[in-house]
Write a structure and sequence with these properties.
By secondary structure, this protein is an alpha/beta fold. Helices cover 36% and strands 30% of the residues. It has eight helices and twelve strands. A six-stranded mixed sheet has the order 6-9-10-3-11-12, with helices on both faces. A four-stranded antiparallel sheet has the order 2-1-4-5, covered by helices on one side. A two-stranded antiparallel sheet has the order 7-8. A hairpin with a 2-residue loop joins strand 1 and strand 2.
């Protein structure tokens, strides 16, 4: 799968947030978008998956050369796109494992018995060093910030997307949890040849991963692109040089 964003302009409530952004990525690649708060990173993530509050006024989002701009969120997900939210919502009355099982069936990923599915879930929970009591809990209800992040990584491992967009997967995590989450993501990406787009404004998670491309986003645009050396540049100088332009 190839995801292409071409001269994208996006507004919310009449205010333009994305201002002519272009980016291209494919399965098997790990891309990183770094930028200060308020640069439009989360808006971009939600727009790719079709959040109804974000209006595309110009440009296209394409998968394998075909526009997905008019597709609903579930249709985009069935193409193989996945979004890990920065702040996952709590949903009372929806069992965590039931949600995973139904989602996997809807996507056509898991077709075995419930017993086999539970066995697989327990193995993944153990790998992520999560407590098995997740199995009986409602979706994200009472989860800590770190538990919510791990639960979304677990969802990703079950649904096996072709391209996963991770919106600040390191927020709310201590250094040990960051290592666990990043190692699980890297392992999954290698095994499934999954494309990963990491959105963050800190470089700490990137010390455990190997990005193919790095993009700096400021004020709704990509202002510089490069490799891992760009992360080192940002570590030393921050975003001040870009904000002054």
């Amino acid at each position: 799968m190839e995801l292409a964003i071409e001269n994208l302009h996006v507004e919310i409530e009449g205010k333009e947030i994305i201002k002519g952004l272009s980016l291209k990525m494919a399965q098997g690649e790990t891309h990183v978008i770094m930028g200060p708060n308020g640069s439009g990173k989360s808006t971009l993530a939600k727009t790719i998956l079709g959040h109804p509050h974000y209006k595309i006024t110009k440009g296209e989002i394409k998968v394998d050369g075909k526009s997905i701009t008019e597709l609903t969120t579930d249709q985009r997900a069935k193409l193989g796109l996945f979004l890990q939210f920065q702040n996952p919502v709590e949903i009372e009355g929806v069992g965590f494992v039931n949600f995973l099982h139904l989602a996997s069936q809807s996507m056509g990923v898991k077709k075995g018995s419930t017993k086999d599915f539970m066995k697989d879930i327990k193995a993944k929970i153990k790998e992520l060093k999560m407590n098995e009591d997740f199995i009986g809990r409602p979706l994200n209800m009472g989860f800590s910030g770190g538990e919510k992040k791990k639960s979304e990584v677990l969802q990703m491992s079950v649904l096996k997307p072709k391209i996963a967009i991770l919106d600040e997967p390191d927020s709310g995590l201590d250094i040990d949890a960051i290592k666990q989450v990043s190692e699980s993501i890297s392992k999954m990406a290698d095994a499934e040849k999954m494309g990963v787009l990491i959105i963050t404004h800190y470089s700490r998670i990137l010390s455990f991963m190997k990005p193919t491309f790095v993009h700096v986003m400021v004020n709704g645009k990509i202002v510089e692109e490069g490799g891992k050396e760009l992360i080192d540049k940002l570590e030393k100088g921050g975003y001040d040089a870009y904000l002054k332009v």
